[in-house]
Amino acid sequence: MRIRIFSTLQKALIEMENMVQESRDIIIKFSKEKDKKTREKVNEFLDFFVIPPTNLDPNGIVQKFNKILELSESRFKNMANTIASEASRETKANIIMTLKVAIGLNSVYKMIRHNLELAKKTGNLQILIALQMNMPLIMRIFKAQFKGAKAFSKGLPVGDGAGPLTTAMLLKKDDKIESIDEMIYAKRECNSRKLIILRPEGPGARLGKIAKAVNTLIDRFNIQKIIMIDAAVKMEGEETGKVAEGVGIVIGGTGVEKWFIEDKILKADIEIDSIVIKMSPEEAITQMNKKILKGCETALERVKSSIERTEDGNILIVGVGNSCGIPNIIEDPSIIKLKDDEKGDT
């Protein structure tokens, strides 16, 4: 039984290793100098890690975590400049996102390899069985992350771009676009209401500093209501692209940005509506499909309904997610490069 499990896991491990190597090669292709030195730098950076602050004294832990995240972002930007110093801003943003995915793939691969080697040395059947039971779920996400790396490297939209896509369809060409912390926003009057529409800058792969931008705009425009749009993980059995409404702040990640916004809205007593487009974890990190686009169109109608329900005042509409492959303004959704359901990923 051990031999059979070892054989199955070893095959999966080899497949994972090949995907890690291919993701590394994708990053190297961005460099003009595809030499040994560049390859070594990329290999070294795949072991990059971030140590979270201690939580022994929780006072001020959010600010500490935020500082560490800012430092890590600076390192990613430096690495992108090292790999492709002459690339455009949008290409560098795609490189950074591809690097993040490649580091995640490498970390998971090393953890699986560690447990397999440990089981070999100790003959521990429990470790082997646990690996065998969880490997289908691990491989499911691992392969999706690998497809996501390819999508980011090509500048293709992913499912997590549902929030930016919805807000991009709300913007118009005659809107005056302004920038703030890798985010863009525009102001517009709508039936005695002032709308401020905010989203990560595209079409490069960016998440933007949402908390900083939101809190700045709250002070600048005296916001009375916030409408947030984001992708959300669906339950098994739910349909992809289904739209749901609620209240609260819909931002994933470490929770740092969520805390900053929650702290601000508590002091300012701001109403928040949340609209989510549901999808599987795999769909969120791979190329966007037709069902998600349709969900974004439905979400746009829900946003308009939320605006109509609001009394006179200033409303901040925030598209949360990854802006990869999504232009800042979209008047024709057919320009979005969607996944081909018949032929697989583009």
Account of the protein in words:
The protein is α/β, with parallel strands linked by helices and 346 residues long. It has 2 domains: 2-154; 159-335, 3-Layer(aba) Sandwich (Rossmann fold), CATH 3.40.50.1470. Helix content is 53%, strand content 14%. It is built from 10 helices and 7 strands. Strands 1-2-3-7-4-6-5 form a 7-stranded mixed beta sheet, sandwiched between helices. The relative contact order is 0.14.
Write the layout of secondary structure elements.
Elements: H1 2-28, H2 36-45, H3 61-83, H4 89-122, H5 125-154, H6 162-170, E1 178-180, E2 183-190, E3 193-200, H7 210-221, E4 225-233, E5 243-246, H8 256-268, E6 271-279, H9 281-285, H10 290-309, E7 314-319
Parallel strand pairs: 3-7, 4-6, 4-7
Antiparallel strand pairs: 1-2, 2-3, 5-6
Helix pairs in contact: 1-2, 1-4, 1-5, 3-4, 3-8, 4-5, 6-10, 7-8
